[in-house]
Amino acid sequence: MLWGGDRARAAPDLLLNTYAKDEMETRDPIIRLFNVSKRYGKHYAVKDITIDVDAGEFIFVTGSSGAGKSTLMKMIYLAERASQGQIIVDGMNLDRISHARIPYLRRNIGVIFQDFKLIPNKTVYGNVALVLEAAGERSAMIRRRVMQVLETTGMADKVNAFPPSLSGGEQQRVAVARAVVGNPKIILADEPTGSLDSESAQSVLDFLMQYHDKGATVLIVSHNMQLISSTVRARSISLADGTLVGTATML
User: Digits of tens for pLDDT over the chain (251 positions)?
Assistant: First the structure.
């Protein structure tokens, strides 16, 4: 939900008090941003954004290059810290979280990058399994879960392949598998289809929709308006020059 004017400058507790009782009973935000800004020197990459993301929403973050989309996503999983304001993710205030607790935050967040960020000297299996290994899961559970997500993403036959031998679309499928293997509550995808052909792009979106249907909250940065318009039950959030300029619901 977007607040504007005086309400956007109010303290979080005052903002909560402005809701009608019935609206309070139906909303369940999993991500909350209050007057959030990110500044590099004198330049604002993101400026004074206040917004709620409800649990289970599917959201596209749109805007031209340099609008602040990637910076916004990075602040949500603490690759960057906000210069001002507060971000609350799954009940955790990111302004107060210690460096030691960042891995616990990220266990509930799956991140998909435009450039894949796969480890080239690890197999497809190894890249996906790494998430569960870092969480200390048992080897039998890791094997079962990794093979499940590789089947879902159509990459089970490439389990022993190394990323450099894969096409761009195949690498992005592996990146999707890695992001979802831990059953995260939140999936953040930064231009996940930007370098893919239309068929591969639609395939990646379909995979994300499957996990959204299972209850995950999904945020996707995208310039692909055709892809956005083909998605149902989604909300778009538009940024320009680091500021929030509008939201719209696509039915």
Answer: 444 344 343 444 444 443 334 433 455 899 999 999 999 999 999 999 999 999 999 999 999 989 999 999 999 999 999 999 999 999 999 999 998 889 889 999 999 998 899 999 999 999 999 999 998 999 999 999 999 999 999 999 999 999 999 999 999 999 999 999 999 999 999 988 887 888 888 888 888 999 999 999 999 998 766 666 666 678 999 999 999 998 888 76
Question: Which CATH number does the domain 55-80+98-250 belong to among 3.40.50.300, 3.40.190.10, 3.10.20.90, 3.40.50.1360?
Answer: 3.40.50.300
Long-range Cβ pairs for the range 87-90 (8 Å, 24+): 87/31, 87/32, 87/33, 87/34, 87/36, 88/31, 88/32, 88/34, 89/30, 89/31, 89/186, 90/30, 90/31, 90/185, 90/186
Q: Does the reported pTM lie above 0.90?
A: no
- Asked if residue 30 lies in contact with residue 89, where contact means CB atoms within 8 angstroms, the answer is yes
* H-helix or E-strand spanning residue 143: helix 139-152
As beta bridge partners, residue 238 has 62, 246
